[in-house]
Design brief:
Layout: E1 2-8, H1 18-32, E2 38-43, E3 46-51, H2 56-65, E4 69-78, H3 82-98, E5 103-110, H4 119-130, E6 135-136, E7 143-149, E8 153-157, E9 160-164, E10 173-177, H5 183-192, E11 197-204, H6 211-228, E12 230-237, H7 239-248, H8 254-272, E13 277-279, H9 292-300, E14 306-307, H10 315-324, H11 328-331, H12 338-341, H13 353-363, H14 366-374, E15 377-382, E16 388-390
Parallel strand pairs: 5-6, 5-7, 10-11, 10-13, 11-12, 13-14
Antiparallel strand pairs: 1-3, 1-4, 2-3, 4-8, 4-9, 7-8, 12-15, 15-16
Bound molecules: adenosine-5'-triphosphate and magnesium ion.
Magnesium ion binds next to loops.
Length: about 400
């Protein structure tokens, strides 16, 4: 058997409703571990997972993706005797010294007060042997070895960082506009990390955008499902709407009108899937459609609060997160996006809402927008990685 210990993150700052957040974290963790025989316990700001050695890969994958923990470690457990504690601490210290740590500190916690030594005495005793491997540095050590005396003793070090954030499901639900680019998956992750469940929508303009472009979005939705546990992707056939824009809108407005039409579909979908907001990967000033004026135009057509978690980030910061959540390599695959194909040479930079309303009215696309919604395909992605395609009107949200 192996035991993992995870440290809870921001949720520990909660007051009287703390247990609700803890419950959610436990429930999410158990969902991720479904199919393996694992025990999950939450106690005093820690979550313990015990499972069979053969399932450790799944447990570690879960710990690397679950939202709500600041860090985790494989913990060694031992008997409540100082001899056993010393042996176990030394074993972990050897591992850390091999990894290059030169200085250490031991931090002991005695939750079971019937243990005959206090925390300070445990630290001094256990540090003795370790000093043959590393030097003590209580202020700025390369590693910390923790000893927790509870019903048994847990010994571990700070080896892996967690995703932090809040457990998914504590902050309502948002509808994410997920394109194949770099930004929108990161925007989705940012909101998941605040505890928001997400459902995704992708506007597909076949044959102007290829099957590969859609496959790329599916891969990204799967990656988000490793954090979101269950993520639905709605694929909206958008070619007809887009052709209509091309035909009837002034060329300079085509991208902005496309955004407006995307919002129109998102309004219908958000209401259907009971989302409380719409999320995009826009970042101020990144491209012509993302000037503050043009963002205001898009927002004007949104019937839900429009959240743009990347608004104040620059590209490098977005790329760092894309690397962290492993979406970067997928996002940079070269399959074209519908917006690129139809992008005007000289897009409007400061669109006015009055003009946008007028142009939208002349498009007469309301019926086409409704049709694109009705013809959507829904794909369910889960943590376990087996997508489930619903080709007809089997909408999970109708149940
Ligand atoms: P991204 O990297 O997320 O594609 P981008 O920098 O390419 O963003 P735009 O193409 O202007 O920026 O898109 C802005 C936002 O609009 C995207 O972040 C996404 O939320 C949404 N969006 C754009 N195209 C699509 C699409 N085909 N399907 C769904 N959402 C889209
Ligand atoms: Mg894009």
């Amino acid at each position: 058997m192996v035991t993992y210990l995870a440290k809870l993150g921001e949720l520990t700052l909660k007051g009287s409703n703390l247990h609700e957040f803890e419950h959610l974290l436990m429930r999410n963790t158990k969902k991720c571990l479904a199919g393996i025989d694992a025990k999950v316990i939450l106690h005093a700001g820690r979550m313990y997972i015990t499972c069979d050695e053969k399932d450790s890969e799944k447990a570690e994958f879960t710990l690397n993706h679950i939202l709500g923990i600041t860090g985790w470690a494989k913990a060694e457990t031992c008997e409540k005797t100082i001899e056993d504690i010393k042996k176990t601490v030394y074993m972990i210290a050897e591992r850390l010294a091999e990894k290059g740590c030169k200085t250490f500190k031991i931090q002991a916690k005695r939750a079971e007060k019937n243990f005959p030594m206090n925390s300070y005495e445990i630290c001094c005793e256990a540090a003795g042997d370790v000093e043959k491997l590393m030097k003590v540095d209580v202020h700025n050590p390369d590693c910390v070895i923790y000893v927790e005396v509870r019903e048994q003793v847990y010994v571990y070090s700070d080896e892996n960082v967690g995703c932090r954030g809040l457990p998914v499901g504590c902050s309502g639900k948002g509808l994410l506009l997920l394109s194949g680019g770099l930004d929108s998956p990161v925007a989705g992750y940012r909101m998941l990390r605040r505890g928001m469940k997400i459902e995704c929508v992708y506007y597909h303009s076949y044959p102007y955008t290829s099957e590969e472009a859609q496959k790329k979005v599916e891969d990204l939705a799967q990656k988000l499902a490793y954090y979101g546990i269950t993520v639905y992707l709605n694929v909206i056939p958008f070619t007809e709407v887009q052709m209509e824009i091309k035909k009837k809108a002034p060329e300079a407005w085509s991208t902005l009108m496309l955004r407006v039409c995307m919002m129109k579909v998102a309004n219908i979908l958000a209401a259907r899937c009971k989302a409380q907001c719409i999320i995009t990967g826009e970042s101020l000033g990144q491209v012509a459609s993302q000037t503050i004026e043009n963002m205001n135009v898009t927002e004007h057509f949104a019937e839900f609060p429009l959240l743009r978690p990347l608004c104040g980030l620059d590209k490098e910061e977005i790329i760092d997160t894309a690397n962290f959540i492993d979406t970067y390599e997928t996002s940079i695959l070269p399959y074209e996006d519908c917006c690129v194909l139809f992008s005007p040479k000289h897009p409007v930079l400061r669109g006015r809402i009055e003009d946008a309303e007028e142009i939208y009215k002349n498009l007469e696309v309301d019926e086409l927008i409704q049709k694109s919604f009705d013809d959507r395909k829904i794909i369910k992605f889960t943590f376990s990685g087996e997508p489930d395609v619903r080709t007809d009107k089997e909408d999970p949200n109708e149940a």
